[in-house]
Write a structure and sequence with these properties.
2 helices, 91 residues, 4 strands, single chain, alpha+beta, two-stranded antiparallel ribbon, binds zinc ion
């Protein structure tokens, strides 16, 4: 275990950051103010509840899928699989 940037290298673009896509969750955003045109000025957003639908590379938006092309919802599975893709490329 450790930093995701040490553990993950995207096999398409070489990126190191992963985004989590959540479903059935509530997004909660701080409202800081209102502009003259009536639009809101937002601050930090947090999410409540829900569960991960999947993960994707932050750089190229490649969705991380398992051998059966299903979205992976378990990060340790991703890291195992990405390692095996990397080692296949090396041989
Ligand atoms: Zn990528």
């Amino acid at each position: 275990m450790g930093n995701i940037t040490d553990l993950f290298t995207c096999s398409r673009c070489g990126g190191h950051w992963i985004e989590e896509i959540r479903q059935n969750c509530t997004s909660v955003t701080v409202v800081l103010g209102i502009r003259d045109d009536g639009s809101y000025i937002y601050g930090a957003t947090t999410t409540e509840g829900g569960k991960p639908r999947g993960y994707r590379c932050m750089s190229c938006r490649r969705e991380l899928r398992d051998n059966r092309a299903l979205l992976i919802t378990n990060l340790s599975e991703i890291l195992k699989q990405e390692k095996s893709i990397e080692s296949r490329h090396e041989t």
